[in-house]
Write a structure and sequence with these properties.
Shape: elongated
Distance between the termini: 42 Å
Bound molecules: zinc ion
Structural class: alpha+beta
Strand order of the largest sheet: 5-4-3-6
Strand content: 25-35%
Length: about 110
């Protein structure tokens, strides 16, 4: 039985000329959906799937048009999140229920 070149399952039966091997139906469908996205959209989606986490955050400092210094109230961790529009109405000690994602070199 041929192994899927993506997930290594034994159910590969769809040739993929782009990748030069065979994919299982699940990986083939996922790749087809991704081909409809731009490179930036793909990078954002992959970052979300790999690094995003939800939590309750407390704003420690607002840098208008730059970002927010936050404390993750679930872990106590301090983090700086890049943000633009949200900084105009944010204030120190506001609480945010949000998802944070690592995108390139920043959150
Ligand atoms: Zn697969």
């Amino acid at each position: 039985m041929t192994r899927c070149i993506r997930c290594q399952s034994g159910g590969a039966r769809r040739p993929c000329p782009v990748l030069g091997g065979e994919l299982c139906p699940s990986c083939c469908a996922r790749d087809q959906r991704r081909r409809e996205l731009t490179d930036g959209e793909c990078a954002a989606l992959e970052a979300l799937q790999a690094t995003a986490w939800p939590s309750l955050f407390e704003i420690q400092q607002v840098q208008v048009d730059t970002g927010l210094q936050l404390t993750d109230l679930a872990t106590g961790d301090a983090l700086f999140v890049r943000e633009r529009s949200g900084t105009h109405q944010a204030s120190k000690f506001d609480l945010l229920l949000a998802w944070v994602v690592q995108l390139g070199d920043h959150l």
